[in-house]
Design goal:
Number of strands: 68
Radius of gyration: 35 Å
Strand order of the largest sheet: 53-54-55-56-57-58-59
Distance between the termini: 11 Å
Number of helices: 4
Low-confidence stretches: 1-33, 833-893
Mean pLDDT: 81
Shape: elongated
Strand content: 35-45%
Length: 913
């Protein structure tokens, strides 16, 4: 039995080992098709930790690490060959008094006596090591506390690229808590450090020094910022950073804990002169340890990370302005769907391209490249590529062991390859080099979105506009305006897009005293624009039309017709919806929310809006005893079936905008309607029904769950007779307000809405339904700290291949007034050349509609809109996992398990027999 168990255990280990080795080989490739060179074991000692890599001249490399027995060890790569491991200790000469070290020596003594006044010995800890542009390595560290003063000196030593022996360590600051050493592209070394001790000559503060000869000599200390409160800091609270663009500009930043503020200063002449300290504005000033760097355009910016939850992390950036008063809002640049990085570093190519490398504590890397892309409106935008996650797992060819690297260090070679050195769990140091240029891994296509522009800035409060596209692909907008957000509208405003320019908005209707104009619905049919709205004193439903080409003149709109006269009485209506069938019949539904006669009503016109039928009830809420109904949505299928959905509120929550969602349809052009079908219960709002030319009917609605709006969706393939299960729309977290929905001729359903990504940022979230699933969500990041009003609308321009989107933004003015900007952007979509046009609608003859009374509109001028000269940068976003495994790879795993499983079973049976 023991023999059988031993064979079985060996077989199981074989199965696990082979599978893990295959998996590890896949993971070591990192990002799918691109490959890495074979891993190289550099240390070959089993006692190595803390690796780092330094670039040398002519594509040479130096790797250093800490050996538990031998201290600092190094190997050099030159002319295609690796040297053997060499000891490279940093030697420190110190003054000794009795049994105590008093201080490191600032100048090398003429004689050194072991056990006497001086002693030279190797450094017992691994220092911070920085490579410079000439291939030299610079070690910098804090000495042990002085036995008398307890001060810790800051020491520096240099290792030339052609040597393995460090030069004599020298003191570059007699006292320091924190420091930052950076090498510029021209080889100049820039150093800042925080001095915690306070004297008349050198008060406590932030000091700067530089070296123009590779670290042999240093400039005199220059105080950039002094405060006596730095005497109270400990090492954890001492934060500072430095960056240089290599052309002479140097920027430093530090935190003053006493003032709870972040400051920066800059030099434009390689540190000779400096600006006065300036406090960092906005969110970067409150961020935890923001980092400085220069982008590919040589503009300085601060970058910091913010963890939203345990499974994601967001990186933000904010440009450091030339004018201290001109801080812009931060930008969200990357969302990492993995552990939040412990550190972020930057590499710069020979031509200045910037690579971001984020490391987490498990050994994973996240890469992103900065690119300049061209938007659809031919503007250049600097943005970041989609993040790529790498995890380094591979097989040790000698020990037949699976290696997982952590404590990674990276180097971007001039040839374009990424060099990675890391520590394995077997205490070996390994090196891998990518094959192929890194730019190919982190490419970013041109953005499909234009930059947002301003259609109009209104002093009155505009409703969410209604959009229409005419036969000439011209975009038309209508909205109502009120004095305040919570008040009903008093005017109906119209504009349109003429080429690339929006026309001056005009008022096509002003309400009379104590009347209102709200909730317009808008479509274009043939050569005409048609609009309906809720107006008058009781909220009656009115209709008007104009030739599309003449709509910019208020007098060209027809006199408003009253549509909501039922059984000889004018009744109040709300939230009208307007659609057209393929034979140009106009269909309107509206809600009578309260009082006698409450319910959902329907009317139509089959003579281009010249006359309308008397309204008929779709649902009589009075007869059914419902307290309130509202927010109807209407769609018509290619077969002429009318589909409607609405919200029912309960008597104890009659003032709420949420409730239960119901659905009904009509197969006979609105003569009769199906019984109401309950779709979802309680806390639901904004239901929308949409049909496609491929025969699908889609319902979408928002439901509030745990204080968060969740978007639900279900669909029908048989004109609403049977429905799918209700599912949450994947990839969208928290849309609020009305969502933009439209369909394309190929059956795709496009969806867009405003989403709160976090408490300080709003995004436009876009996705589309293709066949039987929602596709990956795109995020268009809007300006941080700005307030955006709920809801977004869109309409397709299929022949033009565009998806126009409209939303609203609050703008604070210097006079403490507030403007509302109506904003526009568009996304490119495939131009449809094969739309389905063979479906023949089934139309039932109607009776002749009866003309209804009319009202006369008033006309007023509206100021010309101003175009926003500084729209935000759009950074499209795509969520990726840490690796990509193809389905064929999963199949390969299954084959491996089957083959090895058979081997295990065969060996076990043989052993048993």
């Amino acid at each position: 039995m023991s023999r059988q168990r031993m064979i079985l255990a060996k077989s199981v280990r074989l199965v696990i080992g082979l599978c893990l080795l295959w998996w590890g080989d896949t993971l070591a490739q990192g990002i799918g098709e691109e490959l890495w060179t074979d891993p190289i074991n550099l240390s070959q000692s089993g006692a190595a930790t803390t690796p780092l890599v330094v670039a040398g001249p002519e594509n040479s490399l130096r790797v250093l690490w800490w050996d538990a027995f031998d201290g600092i060890t190094t190997r050099r790569y030159t002319e295609g060959q690796w040297s053997s491991p060499q000891l490279a200790p940093v030697l420190v000469t110190e003054e000794i008094r009795g049994q105590f070290v008093t201080r490191p020596l600032e100048t090398l003594p003429e004689t050194e006596e072991i056990g006497g006044q001086f002693v030279t010995r190797p450094l017992e800890t691994f220092p911070e090591i920085v490579g410079d542009a000439n291939g030299h390595a610079h070690a910098i560290w804090l000495a042990a506390p002085d036995s008398e003063t307890e001060l810790r000196a800051l020491l520096h030593s240099r290792l030339l690229h052609e040597n393995n022996n460090w030069e004599w360590a020298q003191v570059i600051a007699p006292s320091a808590l924190s420091w930052r050493l950076v090498s510029a592209a021209n080889g100049v070394l820039h150093l800042i450090y925080l001095r915690p001790t306070h004297t008349t000559t050198y008060p406590a503060g932030i000091y700067y020094r530089k070296s123009t000869d590779g670290g042999q000599t240093w400039s005199s200390p220059l105080a950039l910022y002094t405060t006596i409160y730095f005497r109270l800091l400990d090492a954890d609270a001492a934060y500072l950073d430095l960056a240089t663009d290599g052309t002479g500009e140097v920027v430093v930043t530090w935190r003053d804990e006493y003032q709870n503020a972040l400051f920066y200063a800059r030099s434009l002449d390689e540190g000779k002169t400096w600006s006065d300290p300036v406090e960092v504005d906005n969110r970067a000033g409150a961020a935890d340890h923001p980092q400085l760097t220069f982008d590919s355009n040589n503009e300085a910016f601060l970058l910091w990370k913010s963890s939203q939850d345990a499974n994601s992390c967001t990186l933000y950036q904010q440009r450091v302005p030339d004018d201290a008063a001109a801080w812009e809002a931060p930008e969200r640049i990357l969302s990492i769907a993995a552990r939040c990085p412990q550190s972020v570093s930057f590499h710069r190519s020979r031509v200045g391209q910037l690579l971001l490398v984020a490391k987490d504590h498990t050994g994973n890397l996240t890469l992103a490249m900065q690119h300049t892309i061209t938007t659809t409106d031919n503007e250049s935008v600097t943005t970041w590529s989609q993040p790529k996650q790498l995890e380094f797992i591979f097989a040790d060819p000698e020990a037949a062991e699976l290696i997982h690297l952590d404590t990674l260090a990276t180097l971007w070679e001039w040839g374009g390859a990424l060099v990675v050195v890391g520590h394995g769990q077997n205490d070996q140091i390994w090196l891998l080099r990518s094959q192929g240029e890194l730019q190919k891994w982190t490419s970013t296509p041109s953005s499909p979105w234009t930059k947002p522009t301003t259609i109009a800035e209104r002093t009155e409060f505009p409703s969410l506009p209604a959009l229409a596209i005419d036969d000439n692909e011209i975009i038309h907008l209508v909205w109502s305006e009120s004095e305040q957000e919570e008040l009903p509208g008093t005017a109906l405003i119209y504009t349109r897009c003429e080429g690339e320019r929006w026309a001056k908005p005009i008022a096509i209707l002003h309400s009379a005293e104590e009347e209102k104009v709200t909730h317009p619905a808008f479509i274009a049919v043939d050569e005409y624009l048609h609009v309906v709205w809720s107006g008058g004193q009781r909220g009656e439903i009115f209709y008007s039309q104009a030739l599309a080409e003449d709509a910019c003149v208020a007098s060209n709109w027809s006199q408003p017709q009253l549509l909501s006269q039922y059984l000889g009485e004018q009744i109040g209506g709300d939230h009208p919806m307007l659609v057209a069938s393929r034979e140009s019949t106009l269909h309107v539904v509206y809600a009578v929310p309260l009082n006698e006669g409450r319910g959902i009503y329907y009317t139509y016109s089959d003579d281009h809006g010249n006359s309308w039928s008397e309204p008929t009830p779709v649902f009589d809420a009075t007869v059914e005893g419902w307290a309130m109904v509202d927010h109807p949505s209407l769609a018509i299928s290619a077969q002429g079936v009318l589909h409607i959905t609405w919200v029912r509120s309960t008597w104890w929550d009659i003032s709420a905008t949420t409730g239960w969602v119901y659905y009904a349809h009509s197969m006979d052009n609105g003569k009769t309607w199906s019984p109401p079908l309950l779709i979802d219960q309680a806390t639901c709002e904004h239901p929308q029904v949409v049909t496609t030319l491929t025969g699908q009917v889609h319902l979408l609605w928002t439901k509030h769950e745990d204080g968060r709006p969740i978007l639900y969706h279900q669909w029908s393939l048989d004109e609403g007779e049977r429905w799918s299960s209700a599912l949450v729309v994947g990839g969208i977290k928290s849309l609020y307000g009305v969502n933009g929905i439209d369909t394309a001729g190929n059956g795709r359903l496009h969806l867009l809405g405003l989403e709160h990504a976090d408490s300080e940022e709003t995004t436009l979230s876009y996705t589309f339904w293709d066949k039987e699933a929602w596709q990956t969500t795109e995020l268009v990041h809007l300006r941080m700290y700005e307030e955006y009003l709920p809801g977004a609308v869109m309409v397709l321009q299929e022949r033009a291949g565009k998806l126009p989107v409209i939303f609203r933004q609050k703008i604070a003015t210097t006079e403490n007034n507030q403007l509302i900007a109506i904003r526009y952007l568009a996304r490119t979509i495939p131009v449809m050349t094969d739309t389905l046009t063979t479906l023949t609608p089934v139309i039932t003859p109607r009776s002749t509609p009866t003309p209804l009374p009319t009202l006369t509109p008033a006309v007023s001028a509206t100021p010309r809109p101003e175009i926003d000269p500084d729209p935000p940068v759009i950074t499209p976003s795509l969520s990726l996992g840490p690796i990509t495994l193809p389905y064929l790879a999963l199949g390969g795993i299954s084959v491996v398990f089957l083959l090895i499983g058979g081997t295990v079973l065969t060996q076990w049976l043989r052993a048993r027999n």
